[in-house]
Design brief:
The complex is a heterodimer of chains A (about 100) and B (about 700). Chain A has helices at about 5-15, 20-25, 30-40; strands at about 45-50, 80-85. The longest helix of chain A has 13 residues, at about 30-40. Chain A has three helices and two strands; from the N terminus they run αααββ. Residues about 55-60, about 65-70 and about 90-95 of chain A have low confidence and may be disordered. Chain A has a two-stranded antiparallel sheet. In chain A, about 55% of the residues are buried. Chain B has helices spanning about 40-50, 95-105, 125-135, 150-155, 160-170, 195-205, 250-275, 285-290, 295-340, 350-365, 370-385, 385-400, 410-415, 420-425, 430-440, 445-460, 465-490, 510-545, 565-570, 585-595, 600-610, 620-630, 635-650, 655-665, 665-695; strands at about 30-35, 55, 65-70, 80-85, 115-120, 140-145, 155-160, 170-175, 185, 275, 500-505. In chain B, α3 packs across α7 (about 250-275) and α9 (about 295-340) runs antiparallel to α11 (about 370-385). Classes of the chains: A alpha+beta (about 100), B alpha/beta (about 700). Chains A and B meet through α1, α3 and β2 of A and α3, α7, α11, α12 and α13 of B. β2 (about 80-85) of chain A pairs antiparallel with β11 of chain B, so a sheet runs across the interface.
Chain lengths: ~100, ~700
């Protein structure tokens, strides 16, 4: 029998693209998946990083709209949150 | 290591020989409000204490805590307690001094509160239950105050307070904090006003004996492994997140195992007490259900982009034509007359100013209405949050094709400019992903190509111009997928696919301030950047077209006989199978190799310069292009124009991109990429024209 945390972690590792999808694959509620992900981030098993939809802050070469882009970290920048697993652990779900 | 979790208690009974009672205190009773952040804890505290409160550092800590007096009325004997509003905490494994206070307090045998009221969010109960499991295991008198029930109901989540109390063994009171009312679900007498009921529940819970922890997990915190007992019949058994074979000495794995066991308990409690009907979704959920759907999502994305390009070209095209007529007519005439007044008419200065700068920069200015509208629409999409959904859809499509999901980020940037997109491949942790993505980026259709698409599409396809431009972006996406699949199955076999979960930002209503600011900044930057490139290119082209290979004087040679014209004519036959072997077009593609912004300026310059007799009224660039493509394609200008657009999309974007690629992936792969781009571009262009001329 698989516990909800392992199920969510496996769902992410097997390619679930969103929390909703991870919850569906793990057969838990969205609320549970959300809480589990937050806990896994606290425990260092997942990593959250804000990613900008737009140009990077390091300059945009000859791009005509360069200075109009929102670099990562800009307060107006819409971002996605990417949750990426950290390195797999011996004996962990990814190794099974 | 095995962690044991018992099934939820069937009743909240206070029976059992192992239960211990808290010794009565002689001083004032202390009741602490604990809970996750933003669950309405402080609102409840303010409602219960009114003005009888003060905020100060907790003794021995640098943490501000609000404390106040609360006069209980619900019990048989009225009682005043000291109410403490503890900082919000996600768990008893502290991440900050604020959270550390809660952990220390509940584990301090001398100073811990007489009762902890866990304020739990009914709309997101899992997090609260996770914290509850830790509080239960700390063996402290507990009461659950359930808030946000109205929000939970609006989301289709129904928390059965009585069932929750039965499953956890902890009394539960439903307390809408905004009204300061509640009803007792379990563990205290019923009747009286709602505030009295809450007070009665608190008074009853203070006197209630502490039960052994129903979760069966002995709390350990994050710093030490849990002391789990016995075997498991629960979700935290042999297949836990930490793995049953994990090293028992690993604190990290032990903490994960403990968390897994707690979520197993949370899952069972939720199954008993929470019904998620899911019938009432928010409007945001309903929109996301469509725009991020695996099937409808890509369709919506394509429809949105088609709408953007169609609206842009239809609205902006008349303005663009008017500007073109104005710049190529009255402005050029005025400049010619002005130069004539100072005796420069017919000299090389006249050629540079009228045929070069006015023709080149003037053509750029005709795109101002189009770019302004385009930037406005894209800013709306971006600011509303839709662009993030589009990225989500793109990510899923790419992963379905077996391509690295995270690669969509630099590729998305590539639709603005390829140079930062190449640099952006550094976010990919895998070297093969970086290489593959850097080779794919040149096929993303950067904004510099957009102006050429619009010009050619407007000239040759009239009202269908928007659809043609949209089609170029579809071709770009298809090229990325096709080339990516080829790379994966050949030189980059066995590239690992990295898991990636995306959380979407909330939708926002775009504001006029953000819209105008975004359009203004982008438009100014477009004119500044493209203008600089065009002026530079026009000057170089003018110099090359003023120098003769056969020894004529500077600036007096016919452009066809110049260095520029001769090289372009030498290259032009290569495009004969694609239907656009006119030397003006091959010259434009040569300058486009340097920067795509220069393509239209080069066309404008070479057509103007090749007809010096008509310099005062050179006609629109569109007329020249139509005539030229008609001749070079033997009467099939439409397929030839499409072939030209496909070639423009697929061949090397610019020198800056080549330099960026060389820096990121080395000279060998860059050279291979350039050769590949030219071959793909030429092959596709020939295929489009040859097939097109058969059916059109």
């Amino acid at each position: 029998m698989i516990d909800p945390m392992t199920a969510v972690l496996r769902a992410i590792e097997s390619g679930a693209g969103s929390l909703t999808e991870a919850a569906r694959r793990a057969e838990v509620s969205y609320d549970e998946a959300d809480a589990i992900v937050e806990t896994l981030i606290d425990l260092g098993r997942l990593r959250r990083e804000a990613i900008a939809i737009g140009c990077p802050s390091g300059g945009c070469g000859t791009c005509g709209s360069a200075s109009g882009c929102h670099p990562a970290g800009h307060r107006d920048a819409p971002t996605l949150l990417a949750i990426r697993p950290v390195s797999p652990r011996p004996g962990g779900p990814s190794a099974q | 290591m095995t962690v044991r979790v018992r099934r939820p208690a069937s009743t909240p009974s206070c029976h059992g020989g192992s239960a211990r009672s808290e010794p009565p205190r002689t001083g004032q009773r202390i009741v602490a409000l604990a809970g996750n952040p933003n669950v309405g804890k402080s609102t409840l505290f303010n409602a219960l204490t009114g003005g009888h409160q003060h905020v100060a550092n907790w003794p021995g800590k640098t943490v501000h805590v609000a404390r106040g007096r609360w006069q209980l009325h619900g019990g048989s004997t009225p009682l005043e307690v000291e109410l403490v509003d503890l900082p919000g905490t996600a768990s008893l494994a502290p991440r900050s001094p604020d959270e550390e206070l809660t952990r220390d307090l509940v584990h301090d045998p001398l100073n811990r509160p007489d009762l902890v009221v866990l304020v739990a969010d009914a709309a997101a109960p899992a997090r609260s239950l996770y914290l509850l499991s830790q509080l239960i295991d700390a063996q402290i008198p507990l009461l659950v105050a359930l808030t946000m029930t109205d929000i939970a109901a609006s989301r289709g989540t129904d928390v059965d307070a009585a069932a929750l109390a039965a499953a956890t063994g902890v009394p539960v009171v439903v307390v809408p904090p905004r009204r300061g009312t509640g009803r007792i679900a379990h563990g205290a007498a019923s009747g009286g006003s709602s505030t009295d009921q809450l007070a009665a529940a608190v008074e009853a819970s203070i006197a209630r004996p502490v039960l052994p922890p129903p979760t069966g997990i002995t709390w350990s915190g994050a710093d030490s492994p849990p002391r789990a007992d016995s075997t498991s019949d629960s979700a935290a058994g042999s297949d836990s997140a930490a793995g049953s074979d994990s090293d028992a000495g690993s604190d990290s794995d032990a903490a994960v195992a403990e968390a897994a066991a707690r979520f197993g308990w949370v899952h069972e409690v939720l199954a008993h007490a929470v019904a998620d009907t899911g019938h009432r979704r928010t409007w945001s959920d309903r929109v996301d259900r469509v725009v991020t759907s695996p099937i409808l999502g890509p369709v919506v994305f394509l429809a949105v982009m088609w709408g953007v390009f169609t609206l842009t070209t239809r609205v902006a095209a008349p303005l663009q034509a008017g500007l073109d007529r104005f710049l190529s007519g009255p402005v050029s005439d005025a400049a010619g007359r002005l130069l004539g007044l100072v005796g420069l008419d017919g000299t090389w200065v006249s050629g540079l100013v009228i045929d070069g700068l006015i023709a080149g920069v003037g053509t750029l200015l005709t795109f101002v209405p189009l770019m302004a509208l385009m930037f406005a629409l894209l800013t709306l999409l971006e600011d509303s949050g839709y662009l993030a959904r589009a990225a989500f859809v793109a990510d899923r499509v790419m992963r379905a094709m077996g391509l690295p999901g995270r690669a969509f980020l630099p590729l998305l940037v590539g639709f603005g400019c390829n140079v930062p997109a190449i640099a952006g491949t550094r976010i990919l942790p895998d070297a093969r992903h970086r290489l593959m993505t850097a080779l794919l980026v040149p096929f993303t259709s950067c904004s510099a190509r957009l102006t050429v698409y619009v010009l050619v599409a407007t000239v040759f396809f009239g009202s269908a111009a928007g659809t043609v431009v949209f089609g170029m972006y579809v071709v770009s996406l298809l090229l990325i997928v096709a080339v990516g699949l080829v790379l994966r199955s050949t030189v980059l076999k066995n590239t690992p696919v990295e898991p990636l979960v995306l959380e979407l930002p909330p939708y926002r209503v775009p504001t006029l301030r953000v819209l105008t600011r975004g359009v203004g900044i982008r438009l100014a930057a477009f004119l500044r950047t493209a203008g600089g490139i065009i002026v530079g290119t026009v000057t170089v082209v003018w110099l090359l077209s003023s120098v003769s290979l056969t020894g004529g004087g500077f600036g007096t040679v016919a452009v066809e006989d110049s260095v520029y014209g001769n090289v372009a004519q030498a290259v032009a036959p290569a495009f004969a199978p694609a239907g656009f072997d006119d030397w003006h077009t091959s010259a434009a593609l040569m300058t486009g190799f340097v920067a795509k912004e220069a393509v239209i300026a080069s066309w404008a310059q070479s057509y103007a310069a090749s007809e010096p007799a008509d310099a005062s009224t050179p006609g629109t660039l569109g007329d020249h292009l139509r005539t030229s493509f008609e001749q070079s394609s033997d009467g099939h200008p439409g397929p030839a124009a499409l072939a030209f657009l496909v070639f423009l999309l697929a061949y090397t974007p610019c020198m800056a991109t080549i330099a960026a690629q060389r820096h990121e992936i080395g000279g060998r792969w860059t050279a291979a990429g350039v050769v590949g781009q030219l071959l793909i571009a030429w092959t596709l262009a020939v295929a489009v024209f040859q097939i097109g001329r058969l059916v059109w």
